[in-house]
Structures are given as C-alpha cells and as structure tokens.
C-alpha cells in the first residue's frame, strides 16, 4: 500500500487564523485537488490528519465539520480524486490529549487503522507542529 498523510488547513485548503468554521469558508488551495487526484489515480491511499480545536472552542459542531468534509470530498471527486479517511483531533490546546499535533497520536492511529509501519510514509505539512508530529511517528515530513 502506498500511503500519504496530508494536513488539511494550509495544505488542501486555505488556512485562517479565525478558523475554517463553515463549508463556505472552506476554499481549496490552487492545484491541491488536482494533486490529490493524481495521487488517487496513481493508487495512493490519501488520508487527512487535522487538528480541529474549533470544536473544543465551540466555534462549530460535528455536523458543521461533517458538512465541511463533505464539501471537500465532493470537490475532490469532481477533480477525480478521493480521500480514504479523515482523522481529526477535536481537542483544544490545553486538553493534554495524545492526538493533537505536535503529539504523534493521530499518526499512530492512522498506522494502526491501516496496519502499516509509518517509517518513510510521506506526511505533507504546513506547520512546525505538523512536522514534529509526523516525524515523531516515523513519517517522512514534507513541508
């Protein structure tokens, strides 16, 4: 299996200091959907790993997050791509969980789910905390 792990905000879609709180605020970065489509068509399993502390902060609920990911999947499908799964941390920065990046828990969950050793698995990131989490899990971090 060829597995690649992508961060969401700042890698697939525009990031926002005010958080992406609705489907309307989710705007794909130029070329990102086409890049994922090329990966999909080359038999890569594409997985998203994303911190979503907006849930813990009360900025949006799970129904809204599901609607955001439905929009992402719909736009990806229109471009010929797909995401196999979205792993997310719903916790805030002070919740002391193991899944919130920069901790590697979310990546470890991905390795467990797919029953793969993450050594060398590419992880496309846009922040230091993402790079740290992926490296701690054994992935090959790509900025």
Structural descriptors:
143 residues, alpha/beta, five-stranded parallel beta sheet, 4 helices, 32% helix
Describe what this molecule looks like in 3D.
The chain is of the alpha/beta class and 143 residues long. It has four helices and five strands. Strands 3-2-1-4-5 form a five-stranded parallel β-sheet, with helices on both faces. The longest helix is centred in the middle third of the chain and has 17 residues, at 62-78. The mean pLDDT is 97.
Radius of gyration from the alpha-carbon trace, in angstroms: 14 Å
Report the β-strand fraction as a percent range.
15-25%
Q: Overall 3D geometry? A: globular
Mean pLDDT: 97
How would you sum up the major sheet?
A: 5 strands, parallel
Order of helices and strands: EHEHEHEHE
Class by alpha and beta content: alpha/beta
Terminal CA distance reads: 22 Å
Low-confidence stretches: none
- The proportion of residues forming helix, as a percent range, comes to 25-40%
Count of extended strands: 5
Question: Which strand order do you get reading across the main beta sheet?
Answer: 3-2-1-4-5
Describe the SSE topology.
Layout lengths: L1 E5 L25 H10 L2 E8 L10 H17 L6 E5 L15 H10 L7 E3 L3 H9 L3 E3 L1
Parallel strand pairs: 1-2, 1-4, 2-3, 4-5
